[in-house]
Amino acid sequence: MNTWAIRQVAEKIKASTRVVVLTGAGISQESGVPTFRGADGLWKNFRAEDLATPEAFDRDPLLVWQWYDWRRSLIKLLKPNAGHYALVELEKKAEDFTLITQNVDGLHKAAGSRNPIEMHGTLWRVRCLQCKKSFENKEVPIQIPPKCTTCGGLLRPDVVWFGEALDEKILHAIYTCLQRVEVMLIVGTSAIVQPAASFGLVAKRAGAFVTELNRSRTAQSSLFDCSIQGKAGELLPQLVEHIGP
Ligand code: NAD
Ligand code: ZN
């Protein structure tokens, strides 16, 4: 069943020039990155929704930084998996390729993806609350609370928290690309967190062939042209193999 569906998607990709891939926490699951919604996403009994917010950071920046330091220390040890590498191969095959990720773990870049749109930011950058500059920072452990080397202001993780708006320029680039895309893959995302949850439907409405690759069915599975259940680290390499050289 999966083989037939994968072959169909591979044919669609071969016949098109513009391909977009949207990834979520599921693509990093096989690398060992905890997803937010599983029990492995808990830290000292706090839920991510109670720590990844501007209010939590205002109330207790040290606590929020301790949580980020914990996540950075776990993720620093991890490696991209076959799913990440397959997307690097797909990028080479497609004439016009865009990778949009909701993940903040940096694993697409580590695998070699050239220019992923990290729409929720990255764990490996920090931003100064005072002078607004952002810097790469890969220190593990990070000194808590981290201070800006330019102005001494408090640094925050350069990620988009629950309740925060996405960068306008990034959103504009994404919607422009969704209007033109011919084939879209939605990999390992629960289709709950907006606005990413609507990207597949936007592309579909604009005429794209949209395929979901996920370990389980999601609330949107029936809305797409194709929904394939399985692990990203197995399905994506198979897809790339079917596309051929
Ligand atoms: P999510 O945790 O809500 O959903 C993960 C989805 O991946 C689920 O639908 C699950 O069925 C699927 N999945 C799990 N393992 C899979 C596998 N091996 N292969 C294919 N599919 C698999 O994640 P989300 O939709 O990305 O939303 C969570 C939000 O939290 C995002 O905004 C993201 O920024 C953030 N987050 C990021 C990371 C990360 O950077 N790796 C981790 C956790 C959460
Ligand atoms: Zn500063």
Task: Describe the 3D structure.
- The structure is a single chain.
- The chain is an alpha/beta fold and 245 residues long.
- The protein folds into 2 domains: 2-32 and 79-120 and 166-243, TPP-binding domain (Rossmann fold), CATH 3.40.50; 38-77 and 128-159, SIR2/SIRT2 'Small Domain' (2-Layer Sandwich).
- Helices cover 39% and strands 18% of the residues.
- A 6-stranded parallel sheet has the order 3-2-1-7-8-9, sandwiched between helices. A 3-stranded antiparallel sheet has the order 5-4-6, covered by helices on one side.
- α1 packs across α10 and α6 (82-93) runs parallel beside α10 (232-243).
- Bound molecules: nicotinamide-adenine-dinucleotide and zinc ion.
CATH architecture of the largest domain, by name, is 3-Layer(aba) Sandwich
User: For the CA atoms, what is the radius of gyration?
Assistant: 18 Å
Mean pLDDT: 95
Would you identify the CATH H-level superfamily of the largest domain?
A: TPP-binding domain
Keywords:
alpha/beta; Rossmann fold; SIR2/SIRT2 'Small Domain'; 6-stranded parallel beta sheet; 3-stranded antiparallel beta sheet; 10 helices; 9 strands; binds nicotinamide-adenine-dinucleotide; binds zinc ion
Spell out the blueprint of helices and strands.
Blueprint: H1 2-14, E1 18-23, H2 25-29, H3 48-51, H4 54-59, H5 61-76, H6 82-93, E2 96-101, H7 107-111, E3 117-118, E4 121-128, E5 134-136, E6 155-159, H8 168-180, E7 183-187, H9 196-205, E8 209-214, E9 226-229, H10 232-243
Parallel strand pairs: 1-2, 1-7, 2-3, 7-8, 8-9
Antiparallel strand pairs: 4-5, 4-6
The structure holds nicotinamide-adenine-dinucleotide and zinc ion (ZN).
